[in-house]
């Protein structure tokens, strides 16, 4: 121990750094799975993305163009038009998110199984776009659900969506199970995602007279 004089007397300063606590474990698989296995799991996730397209405005047409033969994002391992949110890995929010539509977006996001990802496609979905100052438009879908990749444009070209998908796949390849599902994960809790967005009207007979 080193002794450093202070204003009120000697102060003891430890000469060795304090050891950091051991990171949280996720279970037997996290402890026993070798690193190559985790690489294979991430490889499978990045090249098998079932897409749930939440088309709200004109950007949805560009999403459809990206899925057609000319651009063909299926060659990147992206499968469009999942039967529903419970079979989807990736939600693409394309178009203007209004305050009235926001609860539906959030509810469908909650129904998607983990691991799930979100691409915000277009200026309206990113920040409100030309309608950012409207009384009825949500100022970005990231105010209600977590977003992994933002694709700018009004509307973006299909090539921009392909670039956004490649960026998302790069993010999935570097993903750590502990960082995503550990107790210290930065993703919002289920309770936070279920917080009310629009105040429901009072029940008949229960409001102010």
From TrEMBL:
One of the GO BP terms on file: electron transport coupled proton transport
Pro residues bias (residue ranges): 199-209
GO cellular component terms, semicolon-separated: plasma membrane; respiratory chain complex I
Keyword GTP-binding recorded: no
EC id: 7.1.1.-
Record's keyword terms, sorted: 4Fe-4S, Cell membrane, Iron, Iron-sulfur, Membrane, Metal-binding, NAD, Quinone, Translocase, Transmembrane, Transmembrane helix, Transport
Membrane topology classification: Peripheral membrane protein
Its biological purpose: NDH-1 shuttles electrons from NADH, via FMN and iron-sulfur (Fe-S) centers, to quinones in the respiratory chain. The immediate electron acceptor for the enzyme in this species is believed to be a menaquinone. Couples the redox reaction to proton translocation (for every two electrons transferred, four hydrogen ions are translocated across the cytoplasmic membrane), and thus conserves the redox energy in a proton gradient.
Protein name: NADH-quinone oxidoreductase subunit B
Upper classification of the organism: Bacteria, Bacillati, Actinomycetota, Actinomycetes, Kitasatosporales
Gene, per the UniProt record: nuoB2
